[in-house]
Design a protein that fits this description.
PAP2/HPO, mainly alpha, transmembrane
Length: 233
Amino acid sequence: MPDLPVHLWYSITSLGGAGMTLPLAVAIALWLAVGYPWRMAAGWLLLLGAAIGVVTVTKLAFLGWGVGIRELDFTGVSGHAMLSTAVYPVVMFLMLLPARPAIRLLGVLLGLAAGVAVGLSRVALSAHSPSEAVTGCLVGALAALVFVRMAWNAAPGRLSALPVAVSMVVLALLMHGVHVPTQRWVTHIALKVSGHDRPFIRAKWRAVRDVGPGAPPLSQTLNTLVPLHTADV
């Protein structure tokens, strides 16, 4: 693990927050709808939705019922890692669509690298275990690469690179650091569905095999987009 200052890890991890990546994902869909048949935008949203579904189901399973893999310290797919590896490669692909295939491919790889960096930051900040970050990167990368493969031969002249790039950069700057309490929402849903009054937490779950829901009433996983004293715990 690179020995970086903590504040730098926080800056990197913020790139994977839902408050930033989901608006970018919607912007991708809007640009696709403007320049191409609606099926392309729908395909992108379906792939991303499926990836979000995987993250949500694994988190609900753990928080509500304690379903995970102790040997791997796995309590749910990392949403930050998934969103960043899903969204940033497609952002780069869309911006570089008019470019030569080699440059387009380089952009996709850079987007994947950004997602991996976010995954590393989640581990460095103890927000996720390595297995959770790796699975997040894999799920997100799969969604991104399937879409890129589908759209690789799309006619490049239908969208101008400059407006696409400017819109993505401006949106990223505006939404950087915006906090969306997704962990709280998932925890609330898990408690409603499971009927428990408290969620399962990692520490007690790792300590014993048969454990009931424990205190405190919020997730053990830290939300690293906000200061530690106000984080979702």
